[in-house]
C-alpha cells in the first residue's frame, strides 16, 4: 500500500478525505475543487502528526502539549513542509489546525484547536505547525471532546497552511439565521481587517440580514458593506450551501483590491432539522407543533417508538373517516424531524372554523406556545380557506364517529357509573387475545393489529370522561367569574380523586413508609445503589418485605417509566432502579406534616372548603348550579390522566408482543443485539425477519439518537422555513425576571434543585424542583418537593395537575428556568402570581 503523502495541495483533497486532512482541510479542499474562491494552500496530513506524536511519545494530555511543542519536527516532515511553503511563494500565511473530529456535518468543534495568522518564514511556519499539533491537547479541546463523547484514541490532526488574505474587511456568514433558524436568510457579521478580531470577541461587528432569494437587505447595523457587497457575500454563501446541501457557517474576507475569498466553511450544527418534504416557506408555510414538548418529553424517540404513534395515527384517521394508504407511514398530520414527532397544524390554522382552537387548547396544556400560534395567524401564508359550513359538517361527522358525545353526556349525568363502565370496558379490551404469536412474523402482525385497532376504541371514550370534567370546571369558572379569583378556582382542583398517577405516587409513598419499619429493607435502601437494588429485585434477592411490596406495585404500575410514551424505552417492570432510588430518597423525609399523603388529604379538604367559600358569595339558582358543576369537575377531572395511563398499559402489552423478536434477530446475526430492534421501524423489522442484515441502519440510527439526546433546545413551534417561532417572536425579558403561568396556588421558599432528567436524581425534602418538563416518570420526585417550576406546560399540563393535587405551588412555562436558576440558590415560587424570584441569601450548590 502506498503511504499517504505528508503534505498535499488543497486541490488534492475533498470531502471524503477527513481522515487525512481533518474536517477543515477536507472542507477547504472540497471548496477549491468546486471552483470557489479559496486562498491557495496545502495540508500537512494526519500521517505527519502521527509520526511526530509517536516520536514525541505524546499520547496523554499534559505531556502531549509540552512534548509536541518542544520536540524537533522530524527532518523528512520538516523538509516536506518547507518545500510546500516555498511552492506557495513564501510570504505571509495562515496556519490552521484541522482535527478529524472538527467541522463535520454533525459536530463543528469550532475554535477548539488553534489558528495562527500572519506567519512568515520557514522557522515561524514550523513553529506554528508544532503549536497546532500541541493544541489538540489543550484543556479547552480535551474538555470539549469529553463533553461530546469523542474518544481520544484514533483522533488525528492535520494542519492547513494558506496564503494570508490582505483583508480590508472580513467576517462570518451564516446561510441561515442562527437565532431563529430561518433558512434562506443570511446573517452577516463584518469587521475591518482580519476576521480573527470578530471570532475572538475583541470588537463589536457590523451586523446584516439578507434574504438570499430576493437579495433584499432586511436588517442593517453598520456601514462597512453596501447592499451590493452584502448581496454578493450572501449569494456566494447560498452557492456553498447548495453545494453541501445544508446551511453553512462561513468565514470570508475581502482583500484590499476588492476580491472576495472563503477561508473556512462548516455545517451549522445547531439548527433544528426540518421534516422531510417540508416546503421552504417562500410561497407556502407549514406549522409544526412539537408533540414531544406537549408531552413533557424532550428526548428523541426510538424509531420503534415513533412507529407506534404512526400506527395509532393511522387507526384514528380510519375512525374519523380518512383512512391512510400505508398504515406504517401514518397520517400526513404526523411529521418527524430530529427523531421527534411533530403535529402539522397547518390545515387547522387555515380553517375558518378551527383556526382559533389550537391556541385555546394550548393555553391549558402548553401556555408558552399559545402566543406563538396567535401571532402566526397574522401571517398571510396562513389565511383562512374553505367553507365554514363544510368545516362544521366535517367536525360534526368526526365527533359522531368517535362516539364521544354520548359519553360526555353520561359522564355529566352519572359520573361514577360512566367511569366504572368505561374502566370495565378498558380492562376487557386490554385483556383480549392479540392473535397468533408463535413466529416472529406473526408477532409483528399482532403488534400492527393491536395499535391500529385498540386505540380508536379506547381513546375517544377515555377523553370523553375528562372532557366532562373540563366542561364542568370551565362552566363553573365562567359562572363565578365576577366573584372568584383564578388562584381560588385552582384550589378547587386540589386533591382530586381517581387520578391514576396520583394513586401510583401515593402507593409508592405507602411502600416507603412500610419498609422504613423493616431494618433489612431500610438498610438495603440506604447502603446499596438503585442499579444494584434493581438487579437484586430481578433475581428475587431483595429483603423479603421490599421484594414483595415492590412486586405488587409493579403488577399494577410496572408499565410506566421515564419517557414512557416511547415504546422503545424499557418499562419499570424491566428495570426498577428509578423507583428504588425514589424509595431511598423518601426515607429522608422526617417531618410528618410534609408527608405526601397528609398533604394530599389536606389539599382535598382545602378544595372542599374553597368550594363552600365560593358558593357563599352567590345565591339562588346560581349557587345550586355552581355546586353541581364543581362536584362534577372534582369527580371527573382526576381522570385527565387516565387516557395516557391506559395507552401506556397498551404500550407495555405491545412491547411484550414484539420483544421476543429481538433475540431471534440477534441470534440470526441480522442485528448485533436484541435491543437494536427498537431502532428499526415495523417494515424494517419485517425485512430483518426475512433475513436482511440491518447493522448499518441501526448504527446510523443509534449515532443520530445519541446526538439528538444531547440537543438542549427543542422548538415548541417549528415552521417549514426553519424558523423557531418562539425565538422569532420573543420579546426581551427584563433583567432577573422569571415569569411563567400560574399552575398551582401558594407560595413556597426553598433551595432550588435543577434537574434535566429524573434518572438517578435525588431531591432533598423541601427543595424546589426546577425542570424543563415532566411526565409521569418524574412524579415520584414531587412527593418531597416544596414547589415545582417548569420551562414548559400550562395549567392543565401533567406536572401542573399533579402539583395541585399534592398541594405544592407550581409555576410552568418559565423560559430558560433550568439555565437562569442554579442548584443551591434560594428561590421563592409564587404559584398564584406565576413568578419565581431569587432570594438574596444564597447557599452553595449541594
Describe this entry's structure for a reader.
- The chain is of the alpha+beta class.
- 45% of the residues lie in helices and 14% in strands.
- It contains 32 helices and 22 strands.
- The strands form four sheets. The chain has a seven-stranded mixed beta sheet.
- It is globular, with a radius of gyration of 30 Å.
- It starts with 6 loop residues before the first strand and ends in an 8-residue tail after the last strand.
- The model is unreliable at 841-846 (pLDDT under 50).
Query: What is the structural class?
Result: alpha+beta
The total beta strand count reads: 22
Largest sheet: 7 strands, mixed
Oligomeric state of shown chains: single chain
Q: What portion of residues is helical?
A: 40-55%
Tell me the strand percentage band: 5-15%
The whole-angstrom Rg is 30 Å
Number of helical segments with 4 or more residues: 32
Low-confidence stretches: 841-846
Euclidean distance between termini CA atoms: 57 Å
Taken from the alpha-carbon principal axes, the silhouette is globular
Give the strand order, joined by hyphens, for the main sheet. Answer: 16-20-19-18-17-21-22
Mean pLDDT: 89
Amino acid at each position: 500500500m502506498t503511504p499517504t503523502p505528508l503534505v498535499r495541495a488543497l486541490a488534492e483533497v475533498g470531502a471524503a478525505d477527513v481522515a487525512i486532512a481533518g474536517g477543515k482541510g477536507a472542507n477547504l479542499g472540497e471548496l477549491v475543487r468546486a471552483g470557489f474562491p479559496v486562498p491557495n494552500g496545502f495540508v500537512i496530513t494526519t500521517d505527519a502528526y502521527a509520526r511526530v506524536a509517536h516520536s514525541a511519545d505524546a499520547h496523554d494530555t499534559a505531556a502531549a502539549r509540552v512534548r509536541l511543542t518542544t520536540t524537533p519536527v522530524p527532518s523528512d516532515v520538516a523538509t516536506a513542509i518547507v518545500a510546500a511553503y516555498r511552492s506557495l511563494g513564501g510570504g505571509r500565511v495562515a496556519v490552521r489546525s484541522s482535527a478529524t473530529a472538527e467541522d463535520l456535518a454533525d459536530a463543528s468543534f469550532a475554535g477548539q484547536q488553534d489558528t495562527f495568522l500572519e506567519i512568515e518564514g520557514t522557522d515561524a511556519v514550523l513553529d506554528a505547525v508544532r503549536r497546532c499539533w500541541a493544541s489538540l491537547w489543550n484543556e479547552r479541546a480535551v474538555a470539549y471532546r469529553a463533553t461530546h463523547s469523542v474518544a481520544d484514541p484514533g483522533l488525528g490532526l492535520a494542519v492547513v497552511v494558506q496564503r494570508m488574505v490582505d483583508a480590508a474587511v472580513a467576517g462570518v456568514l451564516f446561510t441561515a439565521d442562527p437565532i431563529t433558524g430561518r433558512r434562506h436568510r443570511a446573517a452577516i457579521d463584518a469587521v475591518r481587517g482580519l476576521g480573527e478580531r470578530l471570532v475572538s470577541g475583541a470588537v463589536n461587528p457590523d451586523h446584516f440580514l439578507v434574504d438570499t432569494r430576493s437579495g433584499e437587505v432586511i436588517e442593517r447595523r453598520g456601514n462597512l458593506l453596501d447592499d451590493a457587497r452584502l448581496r454578493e457575500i450572501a449569494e456566494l454563501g447560498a452557492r456553498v450551501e447548495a453545494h453541501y446541501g445544508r446551511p453553512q457557517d462561513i468565514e470570508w474576507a475581502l482583500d484590499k483590491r476588492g476580491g472576495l475569498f472563503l477561508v473556512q466553511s462548516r455545517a451549522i450544527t445547531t439548527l433544528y432539522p426540518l421534516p422531510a418534504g417540508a416546503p421552504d416557506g417562500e410561497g407556502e408555510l407549514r406549522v409544526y407543533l412539537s408533540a414531544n414538548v406537549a408531552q413533557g418529553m424532550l428526548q428523541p424517540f426510538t424509531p420503534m417508538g415513533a412507529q407506534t404513534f404512526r400506527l395509532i395515527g393511522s387507526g384514528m384517521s380510519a375512525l374519523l373517516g380518512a383512512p391512510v394508504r400505508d398504515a406504517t407511514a401514518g397520517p400526513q398530520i404526523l411529521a418527524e424531524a430530529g427523531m421527534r414527532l411533530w403535529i402539522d397544524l397547518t390545515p387547522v390554522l387555515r380553517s375558518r372554523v378551527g383556526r382559533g382552537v389550537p391556541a385555546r387548547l394550548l393555553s391549558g396544556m402548553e401556555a408558552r406556545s399559545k402566543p406563538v400560534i396567535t401571532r402566526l395567524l397574522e401571517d398571510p401564508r396562513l389565511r383562512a380557506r374553505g367553507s365554514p359550513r363544510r368545516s362544521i359538517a366535517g367536525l360534526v361527522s368526526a365527533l359522531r364517529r368517535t362516539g364521544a358525545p354520548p359519553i360526555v353526556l353520561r359522564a355529566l349525568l352519572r359520573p361514577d357509573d360512566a367511569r366504572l363502565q368505561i374502566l370495565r370496558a378498558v380492562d376487557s379490551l386490554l385483556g383480549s387475545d392479540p392473535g397468533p404469536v408463535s413466529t416472529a412474523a406473526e408477532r409483528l402482525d399482532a403488534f400492527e393489529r393491536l395499535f391500529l385497532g385498540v386505540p380508536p376504541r379506547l381513546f375517544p371514550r377515555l377523553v370523553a370522561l375528562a372532557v366532562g370534567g373540563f366542561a364542568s370546571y370551565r362552566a363553573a369558572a365562567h359562572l363565578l367569574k365576577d366573584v372568584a379569583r383564578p388562584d381560588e378556582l385552582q384550589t378547587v382542583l386540589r386533591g382530586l380523586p381517581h387520578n391514576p398517577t396520583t394513586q401510583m405516587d401515593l402507593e409508592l409513598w405507602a411502600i416507603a413508609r412500610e419498609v422504613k419499619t423493616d431494618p433489612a429493607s431500610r438498610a438495603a435502601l440506604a447502603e446499596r445503589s438503585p442499579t444494584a437494588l434493581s438487579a437484586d429485585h430481578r433475581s428475587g434477592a431483595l429483603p423479603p418485605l421490599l421484594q414483595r411490596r415492590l412486586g405488587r406495585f409493579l403488577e399494577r404500575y410496572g408499565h410506566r417509566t421515564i419517557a414512557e410514551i416511547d415504546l422503545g424505552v424499557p418499562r419499570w417492570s424491566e428495570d426498577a432502579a428509578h423507583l428504588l432510588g425514589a424509595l431511598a430518597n423518601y426515607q429522608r423525609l422526617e417531618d410528618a406534616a410534609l408527608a405526601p399523603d397528609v398533604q394530599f388529604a389536606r389539599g382535598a379538604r382545602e378544595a372542599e372548603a374553597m368550594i363552600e367559600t365560593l358558593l357563599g358569595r352567590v345565591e339562588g339558582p346560581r349557587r345550586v348550579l355552581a355546586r353541581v358543576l364543581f362536584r362534577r369537575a372534582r369527580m371527573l377531572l382526576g381522570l385527565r390522566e387516565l387516557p395516557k395511563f391506559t395507552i401506556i398499559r397498551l404500550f407495555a402489552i405491545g412491547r411484550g408482543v414484539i420483544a421476543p423478536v429481538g433475540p431471534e434477530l440477534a441470534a440470526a446475526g441480522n442485528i448485533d443485539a436484541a435491543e437494536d430492534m427498537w431502532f428499526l421501524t415495523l417494515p424494517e423489522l419485517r425485512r430483518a425477519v426475512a433475513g436482511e442484515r440491518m447493522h448499518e441502519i441501526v448504527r446510523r440510527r443509534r449515532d443520530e439518537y445519541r446526538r439528538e439526546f444531547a440537543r438542549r433546545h427543542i422548538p415548541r413551534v417549528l415552521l417549514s422555513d426553519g424558523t423557531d417561532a418562539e425565538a422569532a417572536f420573543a420579546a426581551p425579558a427584563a433583567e432577573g425576571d422569571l415569569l411563567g403561568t400560574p399552575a398551582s396556588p401558594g407560595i413556597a421558599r426553598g433551595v432550588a434543585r435543577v434537574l434535566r432528567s429524573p434518572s438517578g436524581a435525588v431531591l432533598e425534602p423541601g427543595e424546589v424542583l426546577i425542570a424543563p418538563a415532566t411526565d409521569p416518570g418524574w412524579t415520584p420526585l414531587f412527593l418531597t418537593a416544596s414547589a415545582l417550576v417548569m420551562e414548559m406546560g400550562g395549567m392543565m399540563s401533567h406536572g401542573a395537575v399533579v402539583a395541585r393535587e399534592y398541594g405544592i405551588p407550581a409555576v410552568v412555562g418559565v423560559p430558560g428556568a433550568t439555565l437562569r436558576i442554579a442548584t443551591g440558590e434560594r428561590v421563592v415560587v409564587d404559584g398564584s402570581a406565576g413568578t419565581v424570584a431569587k432570594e438574596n441569601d444564597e447557599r452553595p450548590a449541594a
